[in-house]
Amino acid sequence: MNTTQTVTSFAQPEQLYAAVDLGSNSFHMVVVRVSAGSVHTIGKVKQKVRLAAGLDENMYLDQASLERGWKCLEIFAERLQDIPLANIKIVGTATLRLAANADVFIKRAEQILQHKLNIIDGEEEARQIYLGVAYTSANQGNSLVIDIGGASTEIIVGNDMSPIHLVSLNMGCVTFKERFFADGVISSQAFEHAIEHAKALLNPVTNEFLNFSWQQCLGASGTPQAIVEILVTQGISDAIRLDYLHNLRQQCIDCTSIDLLEIDGLTEARRAIFPSGLAILIALFEQLSIEEMQISGGALREGLIYGMLDNMQQNDRRAQTLEQTIERFHIDSTHAHRVKNLSLNLFKQVQNQIDLRKIDCEPILIAASMLSELGMHIEYKQFHLHGAYILSYLPLVGYTQQQQTGIKALVQSHRQEIKLEIFETFHADVRDILMVLSRILRLSSILSIRRKDHMLAEFSLTIKEGNWTIQFPEKWLKSHPLIDAELANEKWQQHKVGWKLECF
After folding, report:
1. Which of 138, 150, 260, 435 is 20 to 30 A from 450, alpha carbon to alpha carbon?
2. What b-and-e string marks burial along 256-293, b requiring 16 or more CB atoms within 10 Å of the CB?
3. Distance of CA 182 to the CA centre of its chain
4. Exposure string (b/e) for 137-167, b if CB count within 10 Å is 16 or more?
5. Which of 455, 443, 462, 448 is CA-nearest to residue 479?
6. In this predicted model, which residue has the larger pLDDT, 400 or 294?
7. Going by C-beta distance under 8 Å and a sequence separation of 6 or more, which residues neighbour residue 276?
8. Same domain, 217 and 187
9. Helix H segments across 330-400?
């Protein structure tokens, strides 16, 4: 939860909150500060404990895994001393649900943490995961949310803040690693067995989920996050798609063993459990007919945090993010809204002439329009490049990772020379739409250059065979030589990359 979130209904002074998630692969702790109506992440700790790897055939945790867990909690305990007990929530998930000697771990853990540890069932885990995703990844319509953990996988369909249908299945990247890749060999046969077993576990619930229609699929951290990092490293700015997963499976097989597994973008910490997590994800894609998956901004820990903040109003998280960013970086708010409104005017005219429905692109255009002057916080001359740099490291709550990458590309390309290589890493469908949005934002920035509403012109846009023509009222351009000159330069810039623009 690398983010800041507005909470408008808090009247109390600054407070600290913490959520601890004792997962089957990793233990996580997140600490937030609630101050002046906002939630700020001020600390995160993650340790690979691989608790599930310590389960024997009788479902007992071995001593080594117990010790790894307790040692990690000693680190967490020191940080938790600074936080009011009422503001702490600690939960255990799949492995502690399954372990026959979980009571041994829990007793010692509670002594270390000086706080009660709650073992939540699979449905509650799924519900909390969905809430964490919903709070940090705004959505419209139904969303399918998937979280592949170390020993369980949660699948949820929900709408806005309400989960509609959810399940938790006993399959995870650690348990599958121990079962199908235990000898460290990565083979076609190992993948096939893992995928088929995952599909067998999915079979009883498949029809229930296929009966729902969803507008987007969101992956919560873990394996999906690792895959996106690999795609980005390999020059692919896109959602997760089944053909990418099949390609990664072959890359794994070509490496022959976990010890030799080297894929550009795959971290050392993820290497051992990557093939098993990938097999589960392939099964999910194939069984549930998923076309593409985006990465969410949160998961279980975020759900626990926001569950404690029960007074938080559920306002539009994207709008909150944009207004907070505008304030934080001293962007001219009036002008940001002016550029946004001009962009939406153009967008609606373009929408009537070009099919832009392949991606949810309006939120990308709105954000890029309102944040187009973000880089002025640094300096003017190259402010579009500075803005793109800031957006490389600035999480935007309510936007998927692909949307954030698109926003960055639009801000980077909205002025000066057009560089088509900015869009080369996107999937073809996404790339074409982003270039259309870039043309819209470039024109909006020019038409609002006087920074006064009464100076804005009425205009109409027509598009024929990729050629854009903007028509203004008679003699309007002649009476506005600054905008006329800027449009003439823009016409030349677009001509250089093969785009055609006419203005009269």
Report:
1. 435
2. eebeebebebbeeebbbbbbbbbbbbbbbbbbbebebb
3. 31
4. bbbeebbbbbbbbbbbbbbbbbbeeebebbb
5. 455
6. 294
7. 173, 174, 176, 177, 180, 181, 194
8. yes
9. 333-351, 362-370, 383-393
pLDDT at 138: 65
- Average confidence (pLDDT) over 239-249: 96
Token pair in block for residue 502: 């006419």
Shared domain for 191 and 286, answered yes or no, is yes
Q: Which residue has the tokens 């890029």?
A: 368
**Contact present, 121 and 97 (Cβ < 8 Å):** yes
Task: Give the 3-state secondary structure of residue 476.
Answer: coil
**Residue 349's domain spans which residues?**
317-456
The tokens of 305 are what?
A: 């945090």
CB 400 within 8 A of CB 295: yes
> Which of these, 296, 223, 270, 259, lies nearest to 48 by C-alpha position?
270
The tokens of 341 are what?
């409104």
355: left (phi over 0), alpha (psi -120 to 50) or beta: beta
Q: Look at phi and psi of residue 190 and say left if phi exceeds 0, alpha if psi is from -120 to 50, else beta.
A: alpha
Cα 449 to Cα 12: distance, rounded to the nearest angstrom: 43
User: Would you call 459 helix, strand, or coil by DSSP?
Assistant: coil
Separation CA 206–CA 228 (nearest Å): 25
Q: Of 423, 449, 446, 435, which Cα lies nearest the Cα of 350?
A: 435
In the chain, the number of structural domains is 3
Backbone angles phi, psi at 324, to 5 degrees: -65, -40
Q: Which residues pair with 279 in a beta bridge?
A: none
Share of the chain above pLDDT 70, in %: 95
pTM: 0.77
Query: Looking up tokens 């296929």, which residue turns up?
Result: 210
CATH of the domain at 171: 3.30.420.150
Q: For 177-214, write each residue's pLDDT tens digit.
A: 999 999 999 999 999 999 999 999 999 999 999 999 89
Structure tokens at 208: 């229930």
pLDDT in tens, 160-176: 888 999 999 999 999 99
Q: How would you write 59-124 as a 3-class SS string?
A: CCECHHHHHHHHHHHHHHHHHHCCCCHHHEEEEECHHHHHCCCHHHHHHHHHHHHCCCCEECCHHH
> Sheet of 142-148: strands edge to edge?
162-169, 153-159, 142-148, 216-219, 292-295, 240-241
Do 161 and 263 reside in the same domain of the chain?
Answer: yes
Instruction: Specify whether 283 is located in the same domain as 415.
Output: no
For residue 259 the two structure tokens come to 């010890």
Residue 37: what pLDDT?
61
